[in-house]
Amino acid sequence: MSTVAIYKHPKIFKLENGKKLRNLEIAYQTFGKLNANKDNVVWACHALTANADVLDWWKGLFGNNALFNPEEHFIVCANILGSNYGTTNPLSKNPTTGQPYYLSFPEFTIKDLAATHNLLANHLEISTIKVLIGGSLGGQQALEWSLAKTQTIENLILVATNAVHSPWGIAFNESQRLAISADRTFYSNQPDGGLKGLKVARSIALLSYRTYEAYSATQLESVNDKITGYRAASYQNYQGEKLCKRFNAYSYWYLSKAMDSHNVGRGRKSITAALAEIKVNTLVIGIENDVLFPISEQKFLASHINEAQFSSINCAYGHDGFLIETDKLTNIIGNFLKESSDKKIIKLHKTA
Ligand SMILES: CC(=O)SCCNC(=O)CCNC(=O)[C@H](O)C(C)(C)COP(=O)(O)OP(=O)(O)OC[C@H]1O[C@@H](n2cnc3c(N)ncnc32)[C@H](O)[C@@H]1OP(=O)(O)O
Ligand SMILES: N[C@@H](CCO)C(=O)O
User: Where is the AB hydrolase-1 domain positioned along the sequence (predicted)?
Assistant: First the structure.
């Protein structure tokens, strides 16, 4: 059993936009033990609304007897900046005013999320990461962190993610923020401010996480005589309410802005030049029916990262398939890691 630990950063944390955060706290969980050589670290970066408990939200890929297991690996997952599962976020107390930040929280970027992972890795005395993995927003962090070159990353696994957030993705996020800001309680500075808007936002997001086929498979009416009260409508409501029970509108707002900011070309020569800088053994996985992060984005990553391998998963579910298709992920990632380790052994034999 792992519990959430908190790393309290003793210094001011400077964000990419120049703003400063005092009293940064990072909530994280670890599973397993760091071995004597400190070379068994598997670091998972979570997506938009998950938390540090990777054995819970990525079960099947992570867990006892899974590919990434605490018997063999030292698994680390940190709750990201801005999220409400323990890390500093808009509902945290601003040390200057003694009141929660709400909308005075500074905006942050994916680079900032990567920088917080680096702070935690330093605190845990981790300088080598055997496997760095993330899907969606988690993949964006993994990519930026590998570009920051603060740790030695041996294997980078990017799932259903991209090099730059697309106009389509930004448009989806903006429509969700419009829904939140249309709820006037968002400006009330209450922890439950904007919840009605958040419900709508999640229902919009669902349309990008699933597919036409997924809705047809799960929400088709069994009778033909209805003129109201459709299953698909009830599903949209249910999913919106489900998120409101465990998240807040402010975190959602800021995290969606961070996603919009993702662009590995910013501050570097170009997007392709940035990707060419990555010399890590990389596997890129795409979901064939992903409408939010279409597979062309993962093909682009794989074709510009040095010798990256590309693989795809057929999943009618769409984008969220990266959280669900854990057997397929286990198979693809397991083979990739085995091949990489075999190649390493052959290389060692040749040089011996
Ligand atoms: C504290 C925490 O919970 S931690 C965070 C957990 N979440 C995360 O980590 C974020 C990542 N995870 C996710 O985004 C999701 O959990 C996923 C993508 C993995 C799976 O999504 P789900 O919502 O579980 O699956 P799906 O889209 O099939 O919907 C099933 C749910 O909708 C309900 N549902 C299905 N059809 C309908 C309908 N017509 N009307 C009402 N409800 C419906 C089901 O009863 C089920 O409810 P439940 O979640 O209460 O069991
Ligand atoms: N379903 C994911 C977002 C899609 O990447 C989440 O709620 O974290």
Answer: 44-321
